[in-house]
Amino acid sequence: MRTFGQLLFAGIALGAVYALVAVGFTVIFRASRIINFAQGQMLALGAFFTSWLVIDEGMPFWAALVLGLAATAALGLVFQWGVLRFAVGKPEFTIVMLTLGLASVLQAVIPTIWGSYPRANGDPWGHSAAHAGGLAFDWVQIWAIIAALVALGAFFVFNRYSRYGLAMRVAASDQEAAVAVGVPLRRIFGLAWGLAGLVACLGGVFLAGYPNSLDPTISNGALLAFPAIILGGIDSTTGAVVGGFGIGIIQELVAGYQPQDASWLGHNFYIAAPYIVMILVLLVRPYGLFGSRPAERL
Amino acid sequence: MTEPALADIPAAAAPPVHPTAAAPARRLPRRTAVGAVSVLAVLLPFVVGRYWLSQLVFVLIVAIGALGLDVLTGRTGQISLGHSFFLAVGAYTAGIIGGRYGLTAALWIPAAGVVAGLLGAVVGPTALRLRGLYLAIVTIGLVFIGQWIFVNVTWISGGPGGESLPVPRFGYLDFASGERMGSVLFDRNKLYYYLALILLALGMAFVYNFGRSRSGLSMYAVRDREVAAAVMGVDVSRTKVKAFVIASALAGVGGALYGSFLSFVEPTQWDLSLSIQYVVVIVVGGMASVWGPLLGSLFVVGLPALLNQVSGSLPFLATGTHVNGVISPTDASTIVYGVVLVVFLLGEPRGVVGLAARVGRLVGRVPAGRAPLFPEQQTPAGDLPGGDRDEKGAEHGQ
Fold first, then answer.
1. Rounded distance between C-alpha atoms, residue B255 and residue B272, angstroms
2. Would you tell me which residues 160-219 of chain B have a C-beta closer than 8 angstroms to some C-beta of chain A?
3. B374 part of contact set with chain A, CB < 8 Å
4. Banded model confidence at residue B207, pLDDT cuts 50, 70, 90
5. Is the pLDDT of residue B10 over 70?
6. Which of A70, B268, B286, B337 is deepest in the core (most CB within 10 A)?
């Protein structure tokens, strides 16, 4: 039981990170109907930039985090403004390929600047933990959950009550109608990319916390948000959060129990497990728990 | 898959107008061009040095796999990031049949294609159930599930430590020792080169003809407007699965040769970035064209090879990997891939093939046609750089 509680907590912390990343995917998908395949690299860039500011430049963690958030948000904006702007009206295929291009560039830029070896994350918590009820709660995980909940809460308030949140929802439900009623689509796309950059950086910084470390393969971690968005439904932000926590918990439980209880599944099953869940979801409920089934117009 | 009832209606019996029947007069320069390229390709191994010959072998091998991805992505419009999985399947099939059982390459090369194709037929229907970008996501899952399998199932892949793959052997012709024919020595690289060249040529001929068949034309219909295709009687799911199977089979053959030429493969190398490289190949080369994969492969394989060669003389390039302050040739190429991908998508979505067509028009060899706005509005017609695809595309569309 103690193990279960421990794993569940770790799963919730990991799920919080996945939820953040998944919301990043969903925000962009809702705005422009494409999947941003560079989300993982944006996440890695945010984490590396923050770590570099703390460790090499001696900046306090919180200040570095704010700068990291600003940097990734700016990256998202610049990509939207400098590249995607020219692809408006092109097929989704083209835009998706453009994000793959960005992913490719960032994936190589990161090790070029910071090297490909694991480096310290720069968060102030390290391996320290709070103990309660016989369980150890790593501070970095507690803060991951807090940060994710605050960020997600802020996003939902923004999405629900602000003018731009409303505009984003309008754009998500019907782009042409949105243009017709005067929603500034270009600004909405920029906003979506900026928001995606913010959540990517936040997710990256916490994903690289203990017990993980920071190396360029961290971008693969963001890919695990794909099972989350499939589970939740690709166009639902609620789904992204639920799916994120779900996949995080599943992954930690598998990582905790499978090596002893199902050792025949071999090494690294916890990496494959979310994708297997994803394929099962696609077979049973293809549009996810909260997703909407697209209607066909002939 | 959208409207099963509609999709099941058989298509009209009359075959579509043959796209190239329109302009017999223009076929001559194309034949000359194909002939010239073929002669050049056959003579090339005797001109280039050892290093570049081995790189050319990689170019041809990558082009075989990319040809498959082009059928799926370029022609059918389905984005797959799982190509590396099928490359791996081909490589390990070669390892088992050719390596462990020591059978001839005349068996394991086709077997690699068949096994990968069968696996594609198993995975395809699930992966293609949903429209649009879902396939890209599912195939990412395939890459990670594949890596988990390859790390764990030692029987297939030799486990995390990797697996040696066989050198092709056809009867007495052994690639390892080379072969002397008269006064000409065909060493290992030359033999690989000609083997890959023959397989690529066969693949290109197959894809070219297939692209003009009924099934092939259905693919363009599915890519350009899925619902309309279904209404007109194209079986959308079957068309997609067919494309997926062809893509997987060609990836299998390409993967078998790739692994064999490398002679040793590890599970970790079949990763997402390998898949992305193949995507770059087809986009840069030019989609829905049989020459695109080859041209794209020349770029994607050639660039790091070139950077490796010149890294000694360029101060910002490292000769090793990841030294601070300098950039490794691999990373430099990856950055260039990304930038070139973006530039081509925004500037010339038809890739190098489209660029060549433009140059061709500038030179005045071909009268200017109406250029399509987007690559997906193209038809299969012009399959040669400098060809007159646009005009025929317009005719065909009418």
1. 15
2. 160
3. yes
4. very high
5. no
6. B286
